[in-house]
Design brief:
Strand 3 and strand 4 form a beta hairpin. The protein has 64 residues and is of the alpha+beta class. It has a single domain, classed as Macrophage Migration Inhibitory Factor (2-Layer Sandwich), CATH 3.30.429. It has a two-stranded parallel sheet with strand order 1-2. A two-stranded antiparallel sheet has the order 3-4. The longest helix has 19 residues. The protein has one helix and four strands, in the order E-H-E-E-E.
């Protein structure tokens, strides 16, 4: 039972999430020989103020 977790900033639409989970499922089937019926994809979203890179919060970044 493969379980894929995607961590990302919040703000994507439901349609974007549908497309993303479909693409991940298709990639896992093609490249990892996964059974799509047993594949789980979990999206964990974070507010930009709760995520930092190189000591700078996402909400303060100018390059993201």
């Amino acid at each position: 039972m493969p379980f894929v977790v995607v961590h990302l900033w919040e703000g994507r639409t439901v349609d974007q999430k549908r497309a993303l989970t479909r693409a991940i499922t298709d990639a896992m089937v093609e490249h990892a020989d996964a059974n799509p019926d047993a594949l789980h994809v979990a999206l964990q979203e974070y507010p930009r103020e709760n995520w930092a890179r190189n000591g700078v919060l996402g909400v303060d970044r100018t390059d993201a």
